[in-house]
Amino acid sequence: xxxxxxxxxxxxxxxxxxxxxxxxxxxxxxPYDASVLIEGESGTGKELVARAIHFGSPRKDKEFxxxxxxxxxDSLLESELFGHRRGSFTGAxxxxxxxFEIADQGTFIFDEVGDMSAAxxxxxxxxxxxxxxxxxxxxxxxxxxxxxxAATNQDLKVLVLKGKFREDLFYRLNVIHLxxxxxxxxxxxxxxxxxxxxKRLAERNKQxxxxxxxxxxxxxxxYRWPGNVRELENELERAFILSEGNVIEPNHFSPHxxxxxxxxxxxxxFKAPANTSSLKDHxxxxxxxxxxxxxxxxxxxxxxxxxxxAKELCISRQELxxxxxxxxxx
Length: 330
Ligand SMILES: Nc1ncnc2c1ncn2[C@@H]1O[C@H](COP(=O)(O)OP(=O)(O)OP(=O)(O)O)[C@@H](O)[C@H]1O
Ligand SMILES: [Mg+2]
Fold this sequence. Notes:
five-stranded parallel beta sheet, 330 residues, binds magnesium ion, globular, 14 helices, single chain, Arc Repressor Mutant, subunit A, Rossmann fold, 13% strand, binds adenosine-5'-triphosphate, 3 domains, alpha/beta
């Protein structure tokens, strides 16, 4: 399946220059203990890359612990990370080992690190600086040896500029920086990914392999994939189940995927009249193009939900519908 030019490290598949670059950095950094910050849109493979780093390192036989910072309340996250002494708070009926201790000598992943509260950022910084921490309610310092990987789909530097993320912690985490490219910027990887995902679906569902028609492949290459590889996996799973024969066709994909592509084609058809010389007309056209592009992108993000899109664009739903009609985007 993999061509001589393609790469496949710990399930990370691709043949684009961008993914090869990621893999080459990954191989170089894996054996070291330096902290890594992985940025990338949702579904671009941040967790997959974090796993590849861990399993390519001398820590591979120790624990790989991943904690989603946005999934816990502040106090719960603190007791999960540091553990607690018996009776340190209501409900702490027994002594609990924290995840830091469990991950000792292994790799620790802070997923969605941009969502970590200011209070916890201070505590984490202390652990990174001193390599020791106290259990909640505890007095004896516990020392741990961890390799830290942080992942986020936000721009952490922007959060630093906005004062929402500590600069000192940012520099501690950002020793090595990896940005994962969105799928739409590495469409060369699409055929390999499609083959890989279909093979897995066929195995999992105990069914023969299916082909993808040329039209279906074109549809996939024209779509912007805001949810990246995860969205591709979901769409292919849907198509695999809905296609009765052994060929996946465009009509087996979600309607929103087909509609978004149709809108993009319509947008491309909208051209500025060549014979207009008035500045006013030019301004109107430029504004219209800008608005259409923005509406298009926001609707993609909200998966076609107009109420959410209008909210995001700070206009009323009626105003959004009026603009969609005006620009023939419905
Ligand atoms: N290059 C790739 N090759 C093969 N599979 C991939 C690749 N990138 C991502 N995937 C697959 O896509 C799915 C999403 O990947 P992953 O969970 O690592 O993304 P993520 O960036 O952590 O997403 P989120 O921001 O939503 O947490 C997984 O099933 C993963 O196996
Ligand atoms: Mg993830």
